[in-house]
Amino acid sequence: MSRLALPVSAGAAVLVALDGTVLLMAQPDMRRELDATAAQLQWTSTGYLVAVAALLVLAGRLGDRYGHRRTLLAGVLGFGAASAGVALAPGVGWVVGLRVAQGVFGALLQPGTLALLRLCCPPERLGRAVAVRTGAIAVAAGAGPLLGGVLVDGFGWRAVFWINVPVAALLAAMTFALPAPAPVPSRAADADAAARRFGLASAALLAAALAVSVHALSRVPERGWGGAAPELALAAVLFGVLAGHERRAASPVVPRPVARSRPVAASLLLLLTASAGLFGTLFGTTFRLQDALHVGPSETALRMLPLTALMVLGAPAAERTLRVRGPRRTALAGVVLLVAGIAGLAGPGGGGASVAATGVASALLGAGFAAVMVTATGTVVGDAPAGYAGVVGGLKQTAMNIGPTLGIAAATGTATGAGTHGALPVLALLAALGLLPAAALPGARPLRGPAVGGA
């Protein structure tokens, strides 16, 4: 395994994770300086999200065909260039357009970060590498609001985009230095060549269906489920047309070995439900703390700090449990912890009135989500059929983009008189649905090597 593979994979994932969290702190200052409307400001996030979600699977297929080092390098360079463009943008229209471009390059780089681990890590080290990557993402998500606040207070909103430029340049240099991975053996040369081809019609249908879905869900907080219903119906029609086209296509955009893989499908559903439950809960709890209980942003972040801490500490513990107990038991335990954390926050004390109860519930959320992330990611990457690491990585990242959008839509669209906090029972049920795909994961497997002390 190249010593650079894990730092590049984790660093690129952190770059994307930080971008989303620091932007939240920059938007108020951006709105004042650029004299933007609320709708324009929303599109600085929505445009990026739609572009990423629509193109992740296609980007994975491109990586499988042309090489993941190439697509990762192009994505990192483009992401950094688009960030610099946003930092120099003279108006909000430029910001929105460049954020969409940033989303395109973000989609290009993300599947490669997972495919890189699959191609460069021996099987006995893969789980530890996934755990390190998960912990790094957790640190980025937790530190993002603090970093964003410091940068905006000291240098203005443009600084949160300038900071991406040197990081992207460093990652590009490290990616360029990576050795070319050895070819993945396939059953037959002609079958491998056919797998790497895919039709533009399938790719366009998938991108359109995902873009419409994410856009519809992202507008639920503003328009409600009724207002989003026409777009959701259109997305359902597009997915139906795509399914029919994929059955007839000689080279479908989601290859048939991937579509038939039970561990991959179960892991994707698990990530979708778990991320929806977690991020919807965080959205609702943040609003309760700040609007109903009048807790400041900094104190809100501190009260939820146990979530980040337990994600970081829980990732290596989950990896050890995964090796000993297997994916099924580890994932089931993770879902139970996640649901318990949401239920804890649903109570009056856990909802912020009691700092201790909120801390305990947050810790349960972090431990549960760490177990789910490590298990599902390791299963997706490790069980992907040979030659399809990119498309599987794209599907995994798609689930991780749609899940939070679905969760926030559920939090706002099912809110009661108690506000978004009243939607937590619905979010707990949504997270609990993850028990079904978790139960479909493989059981314990024989250990393939001694316990690994590092990756």
From TrEMBL:
It is found in: Cell membrane. The keyword RNA-binding does not apply. SUPFAM superfamilies: MFS general substrate transporter. Keywords: Antibiotic resistance, Membrane, Transmembrane, Transmembrane helix. Residues 5-446 form the Major facilitator superfamily (MFS) profile domain. It holds the Pfam family MFS_1. It is a multi-pass membrane protein. The chain crosses the membrane at residues 42-60, 72-94, 100-117, 129-147, 159-178, 198-218, 224-243, 264-289, 301-318, 330-347, 353-374. This is MFS transporter. It comes from Kitasatospora phosalacinea.
